[in-house]
């Protein structure tokens, strides 16, 4: 399988970045939901809570780096036409992808802003610390946190629509959109 995209096939790099982002978005979301469900326990163990928060922030910065890599890779490669789409589907697919990329950028950036406003850097997997991008500012903590929170839920909603659309293509349209991103095979399904 080629590393670069072709006019009819996603390359290995684009597919790897897609699935790494999917794993990060879904994994980080499940992680945060677990932490929120465990809040009473964490209140009795603040050191564990702080460790969890550092992991969350480190994965968020990793997601930001990966989405920037995805955008650079996408810009330097052809975007395959993996299935024939109606004009309506083309327009909405394009808009949905723009929204996905915007949210994949906005969620970690607002998280980084919230952390910075709180006055803390981000320890990245215990290897190094990334400083804040704005000075400590108590008045900005709540708005940046709530922006991060709301945008994260919007991203999860759009990711859900993206997953449903992929399975719709696979099950109803019987085209190769899902398998093209999963296995990288061009063409249409015959089964």
From TrEMBL:
Bilayer-spanning residue ranges: 12-33, 53-73, 98-118, 145-168
Tagged with keyword Signal: no
UniProt topology in membrane: Multi-pass membrane protein
Keywords, sorted A to Z: Cell membrane, Electron transport, Heme, Iron, Membrane, Metal-binding, Transmembrane, Transmembrane helix, Transport
Protein's cellular compartments: Cell membrane
Domain of life: Bacteria
Domain Cytochrome b561 bacterial/Ni-hydrogenase, chain residue ranges per copy: 10-184
GO CC terms in record: plasma membrane
Gene Ontology BP terms: respiratory electron transport chain
Example GO molecular function: heme binding
CC cofactor: heme b
Main localization, broad class: membrane
Xref: PANTHER family: CYTOCHROME B561, CYTOCHROME B561 HOMOLOG 2
Family: Belongs to the cytochrome b561 family.
Protein name: Cytochrome b561 bacterial/Ni-hydrogenase domain-containing protein
